[in-house]
Amino acid sequence: MMEPLIPLKIAERLYVAMGVVIQEIQKKSDYPTDTLDLIVHHYEISRSNYLKGKGWQEKSIKDVTQTEVFELHKWLIDRAAESKVSAEDLELWEREMDDHP
Predict the structure, then answer these.
(1) How many CB atoms are closer than 10 A to CB 37?
(2) pLDDT, one tens digit for every residue, the chain (101 residues)
(3) Which residues, in sequence order, are CB contacts of 32 under 8 Å at separation 6+?
(4) Neighbouring C-beta atoms of residue 46, cutoff 10 Å
(5) Gap between the Cα atoms of 7 and 40, Å rounded
(6) Per residue in 73-101, is it b (16+ CB within 10 Å) or e — as a string?
(7) What are the angstrom distances between the C-alpha of 98 and each of 32, 37, 53, 64?
(8) Which of the residues 7, 34, 72, 76 has the least number of beta carbons within 10 Å of its own beta carbon?
(9) Could you give phi then psi for residue 91, rounded to 5 degrees?
(10) Which residues of 22-33 are buried (b: 16+ CB within 10 A; e: fewer)?
(11) Which helix (H) or strand (E) holds 62?
């Protein structure tokens, strides 16, 4: 049985939160540039596909499941912690995630 896709309303809010965190990581991180570029590239592809009404897609092939979204959420939080993104930025993002129905 396939895992359900994440609801579009949640995906939209997640895009906004991801965008904020990625920008902060880019500003403050010594994380390898090529890795950050890849994250941003996949984020932009996902956002572009969402805005075209296709929902969240990775590489325009595979639908992203709820599990993958939350794995990405955890990964971004870990990278934010490593790159010393401010506690306020992280708390704001966590509140966004917690606000989802």
Answers:
(1) 11
(2) 454 455 556 656 666 666 666 666 666 666 556 655 666 666 666 656 555 554 444 433 334 455 656 666 666 666 666 666 566 666 666 666 555 44
(3) none
(4) 24
(5) 22
(6) beebbebbeebebeeebbeebeebeeeee
(7) 30, 27, 25, 20
(8) 34
(9) -65, -40
(10) bebbeeebeeee
(11) strand 62-63
CA separation for the pair 92, 5 (Å, rounded): 25
Distances (CA, A) of 88 to 2, 23, 64, 70: 37, 14, 28, 21
Helix%, strand%, coil% for the chain, nearest 5: 70, 5, 25
Instruction: Please answer whether residues 9 and 73 qualify as being in contact, where contact means their C-beta atoms are separated by less than 8 angstroms.
Output: no
Task: List the Cα angle 79/15/84 in 5-degree steps.
Answer: 25
The residue type of 29 is S
CB–CB of 66/5 below 8 Å? Answer: yes
Residues β-bridged to residue 5: 65
